[in-house]
Specification:
This protein is mainly α and 139 residues long. It has one domain: lambda repressor-like DNA-binding domains (434 Repressor (Amino-terminal Domain), Orthogonal Bundle). The protein has helices at residues 8-27, 31-38, 42-50, 59-69, 73-80, 95-110, 116-130, 133-138. This is Helix-turn-helix domain-containing protein.
Length: 139
């Protein structure tokens, strides 16, 4: 059997570490500088680095972090296990597409081959997305 699959916390921590190292090497930024330029607080950056989060990071903060560092946001979303965190221009998401997405999620959650960690990640993301937008913005 192969090595254990990396959790979203571990993958995102690795992504953040690489972005911070690049910011330090290319711009001479400290974590405090990074926080000031990205709008993501130092404590949040350190939580991300430690993989110390239960609910997914606020996607607006992830976008701001990536934008300030000129890092593709898609790379952050991949690390988080969120394949499509940003809407794609021109793509319509109607009820048929949503129903298909819900069925696909249900199949993943019922599939015995999907790890418990991945199922927990899916459920955590669904809980996050189900929260009212004003609560997500505060969080």
């Amino acid at each position: 059997m192969g090595a254990a699959q990396e959790s979203p916390q571990q993958a995102f921590a690795r992504f953040v570490r690489r972005a911070i190292d690049d910011a330090r090497d290319e711009r001479g930024w400290t974590v405090s500088d990074l926080a000031a330029h990205t709008g993501v607080g130092r404590s949040t950056v350190f939580r991300w680095l430690a993989g110390d989060w239960q609910d997914y990071p606020e996607l607006a903060k992830v976008r701001g972090f990536c934008a300030a560092l000129d890092v593709p946001v898609a790379a952050a979303f991949r690390a988080l296990g969120v394949p499509d965190g940003a809407p794609v221009a021109g793509r319509q998401r109607g009820p048929d597409t949503a129903d298909a997405d819900i069925r696909a999620i249900q199949r993943r959650l019922a599939d015995p081959r999907v790890s418990a960690d991945e199922k927990k990640t899916i459920r955590d993301l669904l809980r996050y997305l189900a929260r009212p937008a004003d609560r997500r913005a505060a969080g």
